[in-house]
Design a protein that fits this description.
Radius of gyration: 19 Å
Number of domains: 2
Number of helices: 3
Strand content: 15-25%
Number of strands: 10
Shape: globular
Order of helices and strands: HEEEEEEEEEHEH
Structural class: alpha+beta
Largest sheet: 4 strands, mixed
Length: about 140
């Protein structure tokens, strides 16, 4: 049985991202692809800290070790237009996206960026609606 060839979208991860990026480019909108935002800074828990890890039956002492920051990279950021676009075709029930999205929205409020419009299109028609929104804004 032959291996199924994976479709290439260039720098984009899927077809909807590519369509959105191409649509923004064709409409001459400047954007950053996957600009990174730190939602919660890394930290060190100040007391004893033990956790389970793969391939170990006993708890492991991680006291004094840094907990990594929580970062978020929206698909498209249009700083001149104050717009974020996160393309989402399908979200699994146990996916972390809904939680990260809520943290990102709270981050925008706390960072005085709540004047930015945010969009989560799930298909090409909705991407086209965003382009129309941008043209009429």
């Amino acid at each position: 049985m032959a291996k199924k060839k994976k479709k290439s979208y260039g720098k984009y991860k899927n077809g909807l991202e590519k369509y959105c990026g191409d649509s923004l480019t064709q409409s001459n909108y400047k954007f950053e692809y996957e600009a990174q935002f730190v939602l919660v800074e890394g930290f060190i828990y100040p007391s004893d800290h033990y956790k389970s890890v793969p391939k170990k039956s006993e708890l492991v002492n991680v006291t004094g070790k840094k907990t990594l920051p929580i970062k978020y990279k929206p698909d498209f950021y249009l700083p001149e237009r104050k717009v974020f676009i996160e393309t989402k075709g399908f979200v699994r029930a146990n996916d972390s996206f809904p939680l990260r999205w809520k943290l990102f929205l709270k981050f925008l409020i706390d960072s005085d960026m709540s004047d930015h419009a945010v969009f989560i299109p799930k298909n090409r028609k909705q991407v086209d609606e965003i382009i129309t929104y941008l043209k009429n804004r």
